[in-house]
Amino acid sequence: MGTAPGTGTHDSPGAGSGTARPPARSRLKETAMSNALTIRDATDADALPIAALMLQAGEGLYEFLLDGLVPDLSAQAILAHLIEAGDGPLGWPECRVAEREGQVLGMVNAFPVERLDELALDMIPLDRTTHLAPLFQARDPGSFYLSTMAVVPTQRGVGIGVALIAEVLGMAGARKIPRVSLHVWSTNKGAIALYERLGFTITGQVTLPSHDRLSARRALLMARAV
What does pTM read for this prediction? Predict the structure, then answer.
């Protein structure tokens, strides 16, 4: 349906004291060992917790797109259906979850950026897609796109976000895609700090027109090499 510039995580690692930090993918193993955290492929059974986390990350984006499309179905229910169906870029095959003791604590959805063209925007009212068109069009061609990432609020700050980003870097590397790109709302200072500490740089920005149903207006485009 759309991208989620707000990552829904302030999982920023602490600043070092002159000691070099290992690469993000190396820290994935350290995080998993120290916290008994598992990063695994999502399944269709994860659709509900993934949808809840996606809504958290979007900061109103998915509600803006999906509210009222199907009578008696919330934006979260519609999003869960799309995830469970599994045939689009938001589907469960393109998601990974962070899990501890059977509980989903975080998620990430990422795919080759060209798959943005597969989003079923024809089911969305034209005024909504037109409003968000600058966001959909601002992309890094040839990159692996981190569409949405979120961590349960009570679990932030313990390395889950770092582990999920490391997983995305691994996904991109496995497909021989040289860069990872993403959007993040400019108001999400914690997420921006996390991305910058992991090597992402700002490569562009998008300012949306004001709208009473979407508070966020400015999104940053960020990218880093794999």
Answer: 0.83
